[in-house]
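PROTOCOL LOG
Step 1. Enter all chains and additional molecules of the complex.
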Amino acid sequence: MPGALDLGLPARVPAPVPGDLPSRITIWEVGARDGLQNESAVVPVEVKLEFLDRLADAGLTTLEATSFVHPKWVPQLADAAELLAGLKKREGVRYPVLVPNERGLDRALAAGVEHIAIFGSATETFAGKNLNRTLDEQFAMFEPVVTRARAEGLDVRGYVSMCFGDPWEGPVAADQVVSVGKRLLDMGCSQLSLGDTIGVATTGQVDALLDGFIAAGTSLDALAVHFHDTYGQALANTVAALRRGVSTVDSSAGGLGGCPYAESATGNLATEDLVWALNGLGIETGADLGKLADTSAWMAQRLGRPSPSRVVQALRG
Amino acid sequence: MPGALDLGLPARVPAPVPGDLPSRITIWEVGARDGLQNESAVVPVEVKLEFLDRLADAGLTTLEATSFVHPKWVPQLADAAELLAGLKKREGVRYPVLVPNERGLDRALAAGVEHIAIFGSATETFAGKNLNRTLDEQFAMFEPVVTRARAEGLDVRGYVSMCFGDPWEGPVAADQVVSVGKRLLDMGCSQLSLGDTIGVATTGQVDALLDGFIAAGTSLDALAVHFHDTYGQALANTVAALRRGVSTVDSSAGGLGGCPYAESATGNLATEDLVWALNGLGIETGADLGKLADTSAWMAQRLGRPSPSRVVQALRG
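Step 2. Run joint prediction.
Step 3. Record the structure below.
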């Protein structure tokens, strides 16, 4: 359709940023890790490297690159060391990696990583299912990882999964998530990523959880949000979080990804759909929407199925 | 996934409705008209009748049933009179129909319709493309329709299309839309449906347009919103409108629909994705999400392709 691409771009809609929204957002791009980790067919390392390079070329500055989880659990990311060795690092771009435990940290340090993330659970049941640990044991496992990483000069992000609903426990109380999050911050994490791992949250829950952290004295700079679009709520929830003052948002190019514990789960919030929303609001991201959509269309071809991103479908479908 | 369906339902999440949101929303279901009108393969009238009956059974109370536009333009809805004659009307359910002009009104009156809608444009260019008229000529065409309909005791809704962006004109100024909307209200329309016909709007534009109407003295009860999900913004935009006090929302079961002027446009906001959001917020709609998803899965089978609704995909995919 003629002209449609331009309609949401700041060049043509120089709207002032509404007062209750941040003027600039950091997009934490998780496509190469969270997006690809559940793909059953292994993507060649050269394709992953090109993917990351194209995402950087599209202006994204935080690219979660891979995970040092044991290859037995996530065969897709068994090439983590090879990928990091082949990475064309760019000035001003961070390439954090997920690290599950001390063995993973050893591998990350050997690969010269500067920024790691750990992946914790907000609920007892998911800690049991995902880590085979209680919540207390989860913290005991993370503590030496975070302490050593910090001593080595690394920055550490703490993912908190199942922040809103859990397939076994149902709705998760905000107090519970705040308690888990505070322990990770106290341990030395510089930022929490509050994850709706199964995509069930709605906007009122987002407000309530962020209010809980604010009441507990957590700085908004220490909070990021991470929504999956399983029930179509990811962007609405993200906008709710932005209105509460959050300024780091996780998303996945082309909406890649899904949760292995939810059979029919669609992927993460699509980076392109997020960028469309932020461009319209006049919020800076540094991202080039056309290059992002090109990259996701290219990756969709490699994966052999269309991108679930509405923007990618509309612009490149 | 066990338990996933229940997570967003009020029975398990009895969240209080946040203070800035309405406690009850009217869903204006457009699936049978806006949803089906662009389907190239004609859906048999019995299937449409079953669709409407199932939507009523799922608790929806406003079902836009069909359109009396000339069959040459929308062959899919050429069966309007037959459909209305076969309708099993339910107590407490409204069945409005679209009426493009006086000839359409004649047919609607002959069919015993009690509630009509007219479809106007916010922009000169789309008035020209869609109606072959200028904006002034558009009002001259609608005036006798609305006047006669009101004299016959009918309620009249006024659609305003291209409220945020137009494929030819680009972004549309809020003042322009307010001016068009006020003329339709002054003419005798009881409600405006503010449409993002090509799905390009973002939340700041929604705020700005509603603020424009509020500043012009329009009652919020006279405003509904109508978003297409072409760029993934429909639900976020709808939630923004709810926060401004709008309490009538257009949506389409299963996300059926699209805009004939946007080749790759996905459909309307999916009713199921909307209901998931409203259930989570504790906002009443009267809708039964399971029955809606069943209905949309059934219709998707008849149309031969999966529903674009994330909720339908997750629950019935």
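Step 4. Note key features.
Chain A has 13 helices and eleven strands.
The longest strand of chain A covers residues 115-121.
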